[in-house]
Amino acid sequence: MLVEAGAAAIEEVLLRRVAAEGRVLVFNDWEAMTDYEHVTRTRLTAATISVLHAVEGGHFLLQSRVVIFGVQIANTAIRKLTVHPSRAVFERALEDALRQRAPDGTV
Q1: I need a surface site. Which of 29, 44, 86, 103 has the fewest CB within 10 A?
Q2: Is-above-0.85 flag for pTM?
């Protein structure tokens, strides 16, 4: 379960990375997460919206219907989030992103 302290840590890293890099593309392996505190979704959505200009996108590996629904609700405001239904698809998206950023096109 993602609790408020976890959301605070994620928010801190997000804001620090935006400040340092100017742009972020986020990958979250939340496959094992089964639930979250309501305040966590609200907090992370607000933090993401506060730097939305710098967010290239967010990719989530999810299995829990509750967590999938929460991410989909957040995405009504953010519109840059992708839910991946399997590890293979999630890892392929991550590899593609890394390949695009690698100077020689390799991962």
Answers
A1: 103
A2: yes
